[in-house]
Amino acid sequence: MPDAANSTDTPADPSAANTPPLSADLWREMVQNVAVGIVLFDRDLRVHYANPAALEVLHPGATLPEQLTGNHPDETARLTQMLKSVWVSNEPVVIPRMPCTTPGGKLFLAQLTARAIPGASSEGRCIMALHEITEISNLEQRLAASERMAAVGRLAAKVAHELNSPLDGIMRYVALAQRRLRENNYDDLPRYLDDIGFGLKRMAEIVRELLEFGQNASAASPLSDLIYITDQSVRTMQGLADRAGVEILVSHRHTLTVRAGSNMYQVLCNIIKNAIDAMPQGGVLTIINDREGEWAVVRIQDTGRGIRPEDMPYIFEPFFSTKPLGQGTGLGLAVCKEIMEKMGGAIAVTNRPAGGCEFSLRLPGTASKGAIAEGR
């Protein structure tokens, strides 16, 4: 009886040691009917055997590279070099994507894997598996295209969402300017025009910065006064607060310069709007600018209904929204979190014991001008 360790009929998998050995006829039948092309060739790259699946794609030719490429000179030379390296490195050669044509002219992509047959080095025999991957490649391309379109869609949704806040402020000041014109009162028009210009500038910056974030741009944001950013955010959202019966109180305890630009403006507008939406019957919104060590800290507190404990773990996830269907995209807080982290800061939220919730924004402060009078 032959030694089981050296028997070619014994399965290589130890877990199949009790499986009856396959006969030579069964092995031959399997190779003949498998959908993968199997080719046996020698050191000179001459084909000694090809199963039916391989014969469907091989052209007439003296060597395997010629038969695979249809005698295309460049592809034949490249494939010849790669297949001959099997004997140099004694390692399998894998060609992930090889453009091929059948003798009938059909184009297809193939994955080729070639390796020397163990124990046959003296004869110089090598075996190659040829697997058509055209459909897999097409699926990968369609998937990549879908992912690109999804990324474009997400970016477009972000841009649309972030433009809503400054657009709301612009519309408010346009309406006020029109009212003053009807009243022949021109005193406030320069201020309204300045505010409209500020809103338009912010919209341009938002589009630019969101595109930079989408491209993982690492350019540093400009230095900005946190009091100025906060006041501009409040002015932008004041009309929405007035219509909702929400009083906004602002307390500046320190003046800090932060590297934020209009990014912080976006974050503040988003959180202020969410806080106003959380108080449909009116309430009080308190914004506190403070300093903790070298950190600039902004706390936004509302007297709304707070956040349900079961929703708290998901509050910063994209497309998660606690608002009724059609009233929220679920992008606002996800964008805020992304912006804060890319500026080297952090955002957190907690429910307040007295009701409502508090958002805490932390940013590295680059310079402090000291404490100032409480509130305003």
Describe the structure.
The protein folds into 2 domains: 22-132, PAS domain (Beta-Lactamase, 2-Layer Sandwich), CATH 3.30.450.20; 144-371, Histidine kinase-like ATPase, C-terminal domain (Heat Shock Protein 90, 2-Layer Sandwich). The protein contains 9 helices and 12 strands. The chain has helices spanning 24-33, 52-55, 64-69, 73-89, 134-182, 189-214, 226-244, 262-277, 332-342, and strands at 37-41, 47-50, 93-101, 107-116, 126-132, 223-225, 246-252, 254-259, 283-292, 295-302, 346-351, 357-371. The radius of gyration is 35 Å and the shape is elongated.
Helices and strands, with pairings:
Blueprint: H1 24-33, E1 37-41, E2 47-50, H2 52-55, H3 64-69, H4 73-89, E3 93-101, E4 107-116, E5 126-132, H5 134-182, H6 189-214, E6 223-225, H7 226-244, E7 246-252, E8 254-259, H8 262-277, E9 283-292, E10 295-302, H9 332-342, E11 346-351, E12 357-371
Parallel strand pairs: 7-9
Antiparallel strand pairs: 1-2, 1-5, 3-4, 4-5, 6-8, 8-12, 9-10, 10-12, 11-12
Helix pairs in contact: 5-6, 5-7, 7-8, 8-9
Terminal residue distance: 99 Å
Could you state the oligomeric state of the chains shown?
A: single chain
- CATH superfamily label of the largest domain: Histidine kinase-like ATPase, C-terminal domain
Helix content: 40-55%
Radius of gyration: 35 Å
Beta-strand content estimate: 15-25%
Shape verdict: elongated
Defining key terms:
alpha+beta, single chain, 376 residues, Beta-Lactamase
Kindly summarize this structure in a few lines.
The protein has 376 residues and is an alpha+beta fold. It is built from 9 helices and 12 strands.
